[in-house]
Amino acid sequence: MSIAIRLRAPNGQHRLDVDPSTTLKDLANIIREKAKVDKFMLKYGYPLQELDMSDSALTSSVQDLKLRGETVVVVPIDAPSTAVAQANAQGAQTSADVQPPPKPFKAKPMEPDETVVEWPQRGGFIVLRVMPDDNSCMFTSVGGALNIQDPSIRLRREVGEYILAHPETYTKAILGDEPSRYVQRMKRMDTWGGAIELSILSDIYQIQICSVDVKTSRIDRFGENMDTRCIVVYSGIHYDRIAFAMDLGYPPDFDTTQWPADDDEVLQKASELAQKLREQHYFTDTTDFIITCQVCGWVGEGTKGAATHIKETGHAEFVETKIS
Question: What domains sit in the chain, N to C, each tagged with a CATH number?
């Protein structure tokens, strides 16, 4: 009976099915071919620990190493310094597909050292994965942490179904509108998600969702009794995702986005990152910011004004308006 090993490498994720008698040396050759990396170290377990690849260990079998069902992480030996140097030289974000967020929602583009907190004890970095400003940032940030492809439509639908299935909980008083109208509006791709949706998604997927507020440093926990957690950053009118990266040059598909719910060290690191963002004014004060409705041109103030306008008109596409 073969042993299944999940492999995470810079070029993606792979599944290996190897014979129990396969030696570590032979496994390394298989990994070298799959990962397209010549020199590397292997890490496994939680917290990640380095697999002994000394000459004396290379003759050990996969079965002896107790790697059945493990996720083995491939860490190129010379990649970190190279990747960091390239990122600094090019002024890149923490990954190739993370671009500076468009105005008007963010005060300024983030430089790499402003969106990264080094975590040497675990051999990597806590990074901010910036979500598009497309009114679906909350669904995208959580969906990515759950490894859901194209999450916005799916999660909006599931939230709506959950609300209608729990009428005793999600009443007009809680939602601020008739549940049927609220659900129809939430299914629209231009409607923002917030605390209600985070709470529902936590229950649906049985995961604790921690939302770190950039302005106040407050951490809101949705799903206190869950075993696993993911983390998002809230900057007033936008959500981004917190991830752990072994190397800044790795693609987001290689991120770790879930942790045990009792791992408070990762929350501490997320708070450190939020502090760096706050120093760069990476947030919008929603109590008095001026917004314009992109549907009808209405101009109002703060989230309360936006909520009233949504209720009265159904319009839910806003931009922050800068007053000179």
Answer: 3-76 (3.10.20.90), 112-280 (3.90.70.80), 290-320 (no CATH)
Residue 134 a catalytic site member = yes
Q: Which pTM does this prediction carry? A: 0.62
pLDDT digits (tens, 9 = 90+) for 239-279: 999 999 988 888 888 899 999 999 999 999 999 999 999 88
Distances (CA, A) of 163 to 110, 150, 157, 202, 207: 37, 21, 10, 13, 18
Of 210, 230, 238, 240, the catalytic one is 238
Residue 137 annotated among the catalytic residues of the structure: yes
Select which of 14, 133, 213, 315 is catalytic: 315
Contacts of 170 (CB under 8 A, 6+ apart): 163, 179, 182, 196
63 pLDDT above the threshold of 90: no
Of the candidates 137, 210, 230, 293, the residue annotated as catalytic is 137
Q: Give pLDDT tens digits for 152-211.
A: 999 999 999 999 999 999 999 999 889 999 999 999 988 889 999 999 999 999 999 999
Choose, from 19, 113, 134, 264, the residue flagged as catalytic. Answer: 134
Concerning whether 238 is annotated as a catalytic residue, the answer is yes
Decide if 309 is catalytic: no
